[in-house]
Amino acid sequence: MTIRKIIVAIDGHSSCGKSTIAKAVAARFGYAFIDSGAMYRAVTLYALRHDLVADGQVKKDELIQALPQIKIEFRHNSSLQKSDTYLNGENVEEEIRQLPVSQNVSPVATIAEVRAAMVRLQKEMSKNKAIVMDGRDIGTVVFPEAELKLFVTATAEIRAKRRFDELTAKGETVSYDEILQNVQERDHIDSTREASPLRKADDALVLDNSAMTREEQLEWVIEKVKERLNF
Ligand code: CDP
Fold first, then answer.
1. Are residues 75 and 107 in the same domain?
2. Which of 28, 47, 157, 196 could be cross-linked to 52 through a Cys-Cys bond (beta carbons 3.0 to 4.6 Å apart)?
3. How many domains does the chain have?
4. What domain range is 69 assigned to?
5. Residue 135 and residue 206 in one domain
6. For residue range 33-57, what is the model confidence (pLDDT) as tens digits?
7. Atom of ligand 1 lying closest to residue 19 CA
8. What is the CA radius of gyration of the chain?
């Protein structure tokens, strides 16, 4: 008997814990996890380094021209049992999570040509199904046929607090207010852009995790995956 393989699409607002859920679900079912946000972040890092974006202003035409020079991959980090993001052969996993990238990524992600290039790569990486992918447009644009779609959210204040705790735990000095402002700004840009705006797919299940622990939400999601797999 062949075991059914499905695609799990997890979309939602900034810093709502999508990646945490996606990683845990992938580990539980032996699926691959793909962090589509890391890809937009890597493009943004390239743009920052080449002066193609600053203070949220993107040199759109030049960035579009540079797209063929931007190679993004995920490589397994065996010592930490996770996957790291590589930009043109360099491990940029840490740098893409820092505030300068967060502050410029949403404007970069509004560009339709950037999105088309990332979506192509996301589809290529997912040929064999058995994947969990998180992002903003996974259930609506990248995999409208996904067997399970989740739309995750929580209040902006709770999300900012979680991101603040995460960065502080890594030893970074960050301001809560600055993070809250970034979360709200990204929500606004992501939801109002013309190309593939963040929205709940009609058939997505909503998961508001404002008052849930990680364990509770994971249990909830695992049940939904099992239902789709007919366990
Ligand atoms: O983890 P966090 O919520 O901070 O965001 P992310 O998933 O790393 O995504 C960073 C940014 O990339 C988002 O704010 C979006 O602007 C963009 N993005 C997107 O447009 N489409 C996706 N599928 C994933 C991310």
1. yes
2. 47
3. 2
4. 36-127
5. yes
6. 999 999 999 999 999 999 999 999 9
7. 1
8. 17
